[in-house]
Design goal:
alpha+beta, seven-stranded antiparallel sheet, ten-stranded mixed sheet, 383 residues
C-alpha cells in the first residue's frame, strides 16, 4: 500500500473516532439534559392545595444572585458546627409540620412553591412591609405594620449575636385579604436582617392556614421564602413556607414549634433550623450580606401584623387574638428565647425591653424562668 493511502486511512480513522467521541459526548449531555427536564416537571400538590415544583438543587432561585455564580455549595451540605440548643419543651406540645408526601422531591432536587406572576407581585408587596430602617427605640417599618415584641436594648456598643431562637406557641388568627398576622424572630445588623416564624396571610398563601415563613433583607434582596436570591434550601421534603398542621386552641395546652437561626463559623453561613429535632432546612451564604455577614447586633421576638393603611379594620388580631395575660393556654407565647455567643454557647437573651407601637396589642416580658428560659407573651384583639 502506498504511503499516500496509508495517510488517508489514518486521517479517516482519526476523523471517525473523534466524531464518535463527540457524538457520544453530545449523547451523554442530551441524556443528562433530558433526565433533568423529566425530573424538573415533577410537581407535588399537598392536601392543603399548595403546589411545589421539584427543581435541581443548582437551579433554585438563590443561585440567580450575582455573588453566587462561582459557589461551591452542594445538596448534602449541613452545618459543621452546631451549638447545644435546648429542645426539651415542657410547657408546650410539639407541632407537626406538613412535610411533603413520599419523601418529597427526588434526591438532588428541592421543592419550590409554584407561583404565578400575580403571586410574585403579591409577595413583593408584602415583602416591603418587612424592610427595617435604622432605629433607636424600635423597628421603623412602612405604614400599616405594627409590633408587640421583646427586643434587645439600643446601645452604642451592642453585643455580637451569632444566632437567635425560641419555641413559639402556634395559633391561627383570622385576618382579611391584604392583611397578615405573624409571630417572628429577627436578627439584624444595620439594614440587613433575617426573620423566621409563622404567619397567616390569605392573600399570599391563598388560604387561611398558618404557614411557616422566612424573610430576607440582604443587600438588594428583600424577599420571602425560597423565591429569594439569597436563601439556599437543602431539604427535599421541607420547604420553608410549609403549612403547620396543628395550631393551639384557647383553654388547652398550647402547641409549639422551634425556630432557630445560627451562624456556622466554619463557612460563615447562617443556617435555618426548625422542627421538633431542629433539622437544617437551608442557609444564607455570608457574602450576600453587607452588614450581617459576621454577626447580628439586634434581636427581637414577638408579634407583627400588617394591614393597608386605607383598609377598614386596620388592626388584624395578633397571636391567639387575646391580650398577653401571661397564661400559656390563652396567650401567644415564646419560651427559651435564646441567642448564641462567639463560643457557640446558647444563652438566654438578656438586656431586653418591650416595644409596642399601638395599644391594640400588648406584650409581657416575663424574663428568665428556671424551666422555660426567657419567656414572653404577646397578642391582641386588633380592631
Amino acid at each position: 500500500m502506498s504511503s499516500t493511502k496509508i495517510i488517508c486511512c489514518i486521517i479517516i480513522c482519526v476523523f471517525l473516532h473523534s466524531t464518535e467521541g463527540r457524538n457520544s459526548k453530545v449523547s451523554r449531555l442530551y441524556s443528562r439534559k433530558r433526565f433533568h427536564e423529566t425530573q424538573s416537571i415533577k410537581t407535588i400538590k399537598t392536601k392543603y392545595g399548595d403546589t411545589y415544583n421539584c427543581v435541581d438543587f443548582y437551579d433554585q432561585p438563590a443561585f440567580k444572585h450575582p455573588l453566587l455564580k462561582n459557589h461551591k455549595f452542594y445538596p448534602e451540605m449541613r452545618p459543621k458546627l452546631l451549638p447545644n440548643i435546648t429542645i426539651a419543651r415542657n410547657d408546650m406540645e410539639k407541632s407537626v409540620f406538613y412535610t411533603l408526601e413520599n419523601g418529597g422531591c427526588p434526591r438532588g432536587m428541592v421543592p419550590i412553591r409554584r407561583l404565578s406572576e400575580k403571586d410574585r407581585s403579591r409577595e413583593t408587596m408584602f415583602s416591603k412591609t418587612h424592610i427595617r430602617d435604622n432605629f433607636t427605640n424600635g423597628p421603623i417599618a412602612p405604614p400599616g405594620t405594627h409590633f408587640a415584641i421583646v427586643q434587645t436594648k439600643s446601645s452604642p456598643s451592642p453585643p455580637n449575636y451569632y444566632g437567635v431562637g425560641g419555641c413559639f406557641s402556634v395559633w391561627n388568627p383570622q385576618v382579611k385579604e391584604n392583611q397578615y398576622s405573624a409571630a417572628q424572630l429577627t436578627i439584624q445588623n444595620g439594614p440587613d436582617s433575617l426573620q423566621v416564624g409563622w404567619m397567616v396571610n390569605p392573600t399570599m398563601y391563598k388560604n387561611n392556614l398558618t404557614h411557616m415563613f422566612i424573610h430576607t433583607n440582604a443587600g438588594e434582596s428583600h424577599c420571602y421564602n425560597t423565591y429569594c436570591s439569597a436563601f439556599i434550601i437543602v431539604r427535599s421534603d421541607f420547604p420553608p413556607d410549609v403549612a403547620i398542621m396543628d395550631t393551639s386552641k384557647s383553654g388547652e395546652k398550647p402547641i409549639g414549634v422551634d425556630f432557630f437561626i445560627h451562624r456556622d463559623p466554619t463557612y460563615g453561613t447562617w443556617w435555618l433550623l426548625t422542627g421538633k429535632d431542629l433539622v437544617p432546612i437551608g442557609f444564607w451564604p455570608d457574602n450576600v450580606f453587607r452588614t450581617l455577614n459576621k454577626f447580628g447586633t439586634y434581636i427581637s421576638c414577638g408579634g407583627e401584623t400588617y394591614s393597608p393603611p386605607d383598609q377598614p379594620g386596620g388592626y388584624p388580631p395578633m397571636g391567639s387574638g387575646e391580650y398577653s395575660v401571661g397564661v400559656f393556654e390563652r396567650s401567644a407565647s415564646v419560651i427559651h428565647f435564646e441567642t448564641v455567643d462567639d463560643k457557640l454557647k446558647v444563652i438566654d437573651v438578656d438586656g431586653t425591653e418591650k416595644f409596642m407601637d399601638t395599644n391594640k396589642y400588648s406584650v409581657h416580658d416575663v424574663g428568665i424562668r428556671s424551666k422555660s428560659g426567657h419567656t414572653l407573651f404577646f397578642g391582641g384583639y386588633g380592631g
